[in-house]
Predict the structure.
Amino acid sequence: MQHRYEKDILVLPYIAEEGVGQIVKHRFAELQAYFKPAYLRAIAEQKNYDVAYVSAVLQDLYQRHQPLARREFFSGEGAGILALLYNMAKSRHKGLCIQAKEIPIRQSSIEICEYYGINPYRLKTRALLLLCDNGERILQILRREYPELADCAGHIGYLTANKDKIIIDKEEIQYIDKAGKDELYKIIEGDV
């Protein structure tokens, strides 16, 4: 499968945080049967970086480092990072090639999602997508000047000239389709 890459895609901050926080809040007693209460409280209290803060940091980097000039921001909230990526690409009449392993997500979010058998990439999230020509360079500067953001930023893939929207997980290629219902509602409404 040949794709012509047009822009790098970076995502910040960690995905699935809002959904996992709500799951822990609504299902705390149930989760205690499997996870230690202190661990669950730590998940509930952990702070994710606000999208407005992340946006301000990136604007600061762009103002101070002129070679980083060409970029676009796309932020949103909703039914997971895959929905956000899909909507961004569709609005531009483009495709995507995404590496799942590069998407920034906390291990605790993965564990909570695995417990319920839900997809963390389709769980409520707030994120900022940065479309740019030089994603690796931006990440280097970000890690040097804002080390606290180093782990929650990822160069996850590319915007492509065709309209295929794919995600690669290990060796498996899947097509990203239009977002369905947020996985969070399976938990809150008791479907899981």
The mean pLDDT is 88. The first helix runs from residue 17 to 31. The helical segments are 17-31, 37-45, 51-64, 81-91, 107-116, 135-145, 184-188. The radius of gyration is 17 Å.
